[in-house]
Design brief:
The protein has nine helices and no strands. It is an all-alpha fold. The protein has one domain.
């Protein structure tokens, strides 16, 4: 019995992984627009979890919900406690009509940026996991800060707006 090592060592498609990251980032931003308190958080987490599993699949790494939860906490801490405070506070503010509308201008792009940054980190994280290595949480958090700063340079308002355009065949 021979094992096809070429297939086992197949490198994931960078283009496909980047497409997964962009798609899930835009969807997370769109999910955040949901005005129903709690539904937005569920939608965003669902998009991020889908991205996590899809990228893990590309790297042929098995994952667990616990690993996702731990990673998400580490990455959120990487961009600072202010991010968790902002996302939590704005989720509560959505309960007040009028004020919630104002949030639609700035929070969805931040959610999309966070999701994109998370995807960039996963491109480093999964190859390490596949090799049986670990990534120091402090180093991962520092990498997340850098990825998040880069993510904020993307015109997310345009990306989110364009996601609602329908193409004619």
């Amino acid at each position: 019995m021979s094992i096809n090592t070429e297939e086992n060592n197949k490198k994931p498609s960078e283009e496909k992984i980047n497409a997964i990251i962009m798609r899930c980032s835009v969807l997370a931003g769109v999910a955040d627009i949901n005005p129903i308190v709690g539904a937005d958080v569920a939608g965003v987490a669902g998009c991020q979890l889908k991205m996590f599993y899809d990228i893990a699949s590309e790297y042929d790494v098995s994952v667990t919900k616990e690993r996702f939860t731990e990673l998400l906490g580490t990455l959120a801490t990487g961009i600072g406690g202010w991010a968790l405070t902002i996302f939590g506070a704005t989720a509560m503010i959505k309960a007040f009509p009028g004020i919630a509308s104002i949030l639609l201008f700035w929070q969805p792009p931040l959610v999309a940026a966070f999701t994109w940054a998370m995807g960039q980190i996963l491109k480093i994280y999964f190859p390490l996991i596949k090799e049986g290595k670990t990534w120091d949480k402090t180093e991962m958090q520092e990498a997340m800060k850098i990825a998040y700063e880069n993510a904020k340079k993307i015109n997310w308002k345009s990306e989110l707006k364009n996601s609602f355009k329908f193409k004619k065949d």
